[in-house]
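User: I'm writing a tutorial on reading structure tokens. Could you give me a worked example: one chain, its sequence, then its tokens, then a sentence or two explaining what the tokens reveal?
Assistant: Sure. Here is the example chain.
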Amino acid sequence: MNVDEVKGKGKQIKGKIREEAGKLTGNKKEQVKGKIEQVEGVVQEEIGKIKGKLKK
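And here are its predicted structure tokens:
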């Protein structure tokens, strides 16, 4: 597992927390920001996996 994969997982977790906090407070903007952050995390994680495969 490389740095991009770890950071991507972290973004996904942070985004999920942000989304859930938005749901609890009724803040749609925070929910959307959380979902976006989760997608960014998935993309970053996948980039990390690709980089790892290229190095092998």
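What the tokens reveal: The two ends are 13 Å apart (CA to CA). Residues 3-55 form one domain.
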